[in-house]
Amino acid sequence: SSIHGKGLNRFWSNIDGYQAPLLMLVAASTSDAHEDNISSRQWVIGVLVQQGFENRDVYYGSPGFIYALHPSFHASGWT
């Protein structure tokens, strides 16, 4: 939905078996209400993998990168 996004099953069915580099962006937000103060935080993170995703029962894959894009940029090396 426009409020809560799509289900993870839908995402997985669209990428399962894709065997090429994949950039995934995720946007999220939270809000905290303490007494009369309501604060909101938003994040955007990105993940870059070289091998794509495949549904397996064991660990697999090659190194990838994870990025924080918002509110500030930060890149982490191979994960």
From TrEMBL:
Domain TLDc: 1-79
Pfam family, one: TLD
PROSITE patterns named in the record: TLDC
Highest taxon of the lineage: Eukaryota
Protein's recorded name: TLDc domain-containing protein
Species the sequence originates in: Nymphaea colorata
Higher taxonomy: Eukaryota, Viridiplantae, Streptophyta, Embryophyta, Tracheophyta
